[in-house]
Each structure stands twice: as structure tokens, then as C-alpha cells.
Amino acid sequence: MEFIDLKEQYRRYNTEINDRIQQVLNHGQYVMGPEVSELEYALANYIGVKHCISVASGTDSLEIALRALDIGIGDEVITVPFTWISTAEAIALVGAKPVFVDIEPIAFNINIDQIEAAITPKTKAIMPVSLFGQMPDYERINTIAERHGLFVIEDAAQSFGATQNGHRSCGITHIGSTSFFPAKPFGCYGDGGALFTDDDKLADTMRAIRNHGGLERHHHPLIGMNGRFDTIQAAVMLAKLPHFAWEVAERERIGARYSAALKDYCTVPEVIAGNSHVYAQYTLRINDRDHVAAKLKAAGIPSAIYYPKCLHEQPVFAGLGHKLGDFPVSEQAANEVISLPMHPFLSEADQDRVIATIVVE
Fold first, then answer.
1. What are the two backbone dihedrals, phi and then psi, of residue 267, each rounded to the nearest 5 degrees?
2. Beta-carbon contacts of residue 288 (< 8 Å; ≥ 6 apart)
3. What percent of the chain is modeled with pLDDT above 70?
4. Per-residue pLDDT averaged across 170-188, rounded?
5. pTM higher than 0.85 for the full model?
């Protein structure tokens, strides 16, 4: 059994994927070829915004977003300690300080009630994470940001395809940032990511930063990076895109089936009213996690822990001065969460094996 079955996905779509890759091999434009702009146009339409800027990774996308907003040394950005390191890493990479706010226990997303207490005169932005595949309440977050003159960047690395009250993830804040890492709900065959915005000036700035600081060859008004998205990766994603709506629907169906079977045995993911959930990870909370993980392993079933340690516990952020107990909800989640096999091709028979292994003592 696969935790995320990319091999089955390729088997099903291989004709379209191979044809798209062959077109790139035929024209030979491997960097910023026509497939890149074709994908950007398609994804901007999908999200419902004016601009999509593809980039080399989800981490680059966060850094580019922060730099485009002129966030740097001496500034603060509010985020959460229960997430992958890239979220806070990108803040540190531009010279700013990550300011952590605890999560809420239901959906593992930022506790919005605690945001305003974390705002200081140095705060420039809020970077919530739409963790595991669903979004926090962006209407409330955007209202707080507007009241304090702050930007909002959605870290949507795990939530591409999710919706909230009719709005798609990546299209509900000043900038939406996502990852196309292969294991994501919509992934390529390497590293990749994208940025989304309705702001024309921000879009041009982000395009320039990803391409060594300029929109024209040999003219560099900004310090940039080599953050371009590969043409072959764009080709792979163009082949996958027509199947994505079906994959999202399957993720929702499989997630709901897990929850119905497991709700009496552990804390299953709750889909917040107004949200849809793409289950980038299907993540449970369970007191005896290590016991359950051992049972799954003995049965030949893969599982994973996202995340066993909070960011304020990581050595690289020791200088922030946090200690255990500062973010109790995040710390408890790190001790209780376990993620089960989840992908659109998971058979009911395999899912039943997972369920039976958890519920049978």
C-alpha cells in the first residue's frame, strides 16, 4: 500500500503526460517555455485571480512574496509554530522575525482570537497556514489585517483546490502561495510552486524577483533570485490539470469515508462550516499514537507524523527565546497527530484495511 500513490497516477495519465513532455523535448525551450505561461493562465483562471506567477518551489514562493512586500530586517511576520519549517524559514530568510501564534485544536489552523495580541509596531504581515487541506477563517483574518494595515499571505502549500464560502484557496488574500511538490494535492515531478494575486504591481514585482530581479533581459532594478519554474514541470501539470477536479472530489469522498468509520475511536478531521477540504494529509488525533503507528507498521500500512516537533522547539529558532508550554495546543497536536494513506486512487479495500487495523485491538 502506498501512502501517496504517484505511480498509479502516472499509470492512469501517462499518455497525456508523455505527450506533453515530448512537446517540450521537441521545441527545446526548457526554461520559461510556452507551457509555463499556459499553465499560469490556466491556474489564474482556476483560482479566479488576475495573476499566477509560477516559481521553483513552495519555499521560494513564500520568500518572493515577502520580498515583494518589502518585508525584511527589523520587521515581524505572524505565523504558527505547527507547520513545516518553510513557513518560518522564509520569514527568517528575508531577515524578518517569525512571531508565533498558537493554533486552534479543531482544524490545526491559526487561533484567530490570539492574532491581535501578537501585533506590534514592527508587524508587517500575517502568514496563516491552511494546514492539511482546509483554510482558516480568512474573512476574520483579513478584517484584522485591514484594521492594522497589514498584508496577508496565505501559505496554501497543502490546500490548493480547497474552497471557503465559494472562494478558492490562494485567491482570498493579498498573496496566495502554494507548493507543487509531488506529494501535494496538485503536484509536479520535482520542486515547484506558485503565487497568486489580483495586484498588478505586486505581480510584476514577484515576476521580477523570480528572474534575477528583472522583467527585461540585462535590466535588473531589484535583487532577485533564480526562482523560475521548469518548462517540463509545467508540461506535467498541464497534463494533470484536466483530472484535478475528479481527484479533489475523490479526496473528499475518501476523507469522509475515513471519518465516518473512525469517529468513535479517535478525533477525526472536522470540516469547518463553509469550507471544503482536500486532505493533503488525512490527519487524526489519538492519545496512543505510537501504539497505533506500530500496529499500522506491523500490518504493512504506511503512516506519517506531520509534525512531531513544533517550530519553536527547533534549534534554528532557539534565539526567539521560546520554551515548552508557550504554545500548548500546537505542542499537544505534535504529540497526538498521525496521518493515514490518502490519495485519489486509494481503493475501498485498502482503506478498509487501514480502518480495521486502527479499530481492532
1. -90, 110
2. none
3. 100
4. 98
5. yes
Q: How many CA atoms lie within 13 A of 184 on its CB side?
A: 26
Q: Which domains occur in the chain, in start order?
A: 6-101+108-238 (3.40.640.10), 244-359 (3.90.1150.10)
In the numeric block, the cell 505547527 is attached to: 82
Question: What are the distances in angstroms from CA 113 to CA 75, 91, 128, 202?
Answer: 22, 22, 13, 29
What's the start-to-end Cα distance of the chain, in Å? 21
Angle between helices 200-210 and 58-68 (to 10 degrees): 120
In angstroms, the CA 3 to CA 198 distance is 36
- Residue identified by cell 482570537 is 113
Residue 60 sits at the vertex; the CA angle it makes with 135 and 247, to the nearest 5 degrees, is: 45
340: Cα within 13 Å, side-chain hemisphere: 29
Distances (CA, A) of 221 to 31, 53, 139, 204, 217: 21, 19, 35, 12, 11
Backbone dihedral angles phi then psi of residue 78, each to the nearest 5 degrees:
-85, 130
Q: 267: which 3 cell numbers?
A: 478525533
> Could you give the percent of the chain with pLDDT greater than 90?
99
Phi then psi for 243, rounded to 5 degrees? Answer: -95, -5
